[in-house]
Amino acid sequence: MPNVAEQPSAIRSYYEGLAEGVFRAVTCQACGGYTFPPTGCCEHCGSWDVTPVELSGDATLLLASHNISPACHPRFEKIAPYVYGHIRLKEGPIVQAIVLGVDPTPQALQALFERGPVPAKAETLQMDDLPVLAYRIVG
Hints:
By secondary structure, the chain is α+β, with helices and mostly antiparallel strands. The protein has helices spanning 10-20, 106-115, and strands spanning 24-28, 34-35, 50-54, 58-66, 83-89, 94-100, 118-126, 131-137. The chain folds into two domains: 4-54, no CATH class; 58-137, no CATH class. The strands form two sheets. The chain has a five-stranded mixed barrel. It has a three-stranded antiparallel β-sheet with strand order 2-1-3.
């Protein structure tokens, strides 16, 4: 196992990257899997032999819904109501994130559902306390 004290914080690196518009993950040298957001070990096989990488930001929105009211955390009150969804990253992982470019109405969500999976691109929303991952519908 590597000396953990010598490694930079994966979480700090993730949020610093978000603030810069960079989407950081780790890739496993043992199985080739991606872990996003990054952690100290592979989420697929448990190996500690992981390497930091930057993701493309390209993704596919698989499904979407609207948020509950009130917002799930005070940091999201300013943007509520909003849409969130399950997004498959080009590199493979599936994440949950805020979805931009879709009205949080039943009609807009129904239209999005009928389109099927749609391309999306990662963005950073700067909230009052920290940057947050979001994806914008493309096209």
